[in-house]
Amino acid sequence: MQENNATHQWSAKLTKDNTVFQAELIALNKAVKYAATLKTNLPVTIFVDNRASIQASSSPKTTNRTARENFEILLENPHIKISWIKDHVGYFGNEAADSLAKPAAESNDVQLDIKLAKCHAKISFV
Predict the structure, then answer these.
(1) 35, 123, 124, 126: which is deepest, by most CB within 10 A?
(2) Structural domains of the chain ordered from first start
(3) Cα torsion at 92, 49, 16, 103 (round to 10°)?
């Protein structure tokens, strides 16, 4: 986003068994990867409304593969920052992200097939 204009956007459908946390981490991963491709040393801030994905991506001890990748990209690109914002209060970028997520969630076509969260796999197979 630059001055309330989307410069890049992405959305995808996950399986019904994937978690919100996985979806949030993947979305953050796509944003971090995109920000890293920008040829600038100017500060880049990614606003995120999911604290768990921020915490996982900010921890050197994270065991989640996607969060680990986020952490490493952020470490290599110190000009990229992640900042938490409250959700559903009218922030333009957050509302734009929500409007992209809704049709993807309602779609019948899975576009990303990622591993189940360990907690879900344990519940499903016990």
Answers:
(1) 35
(2) 20-106 (3.30.420.10)
(3) 0
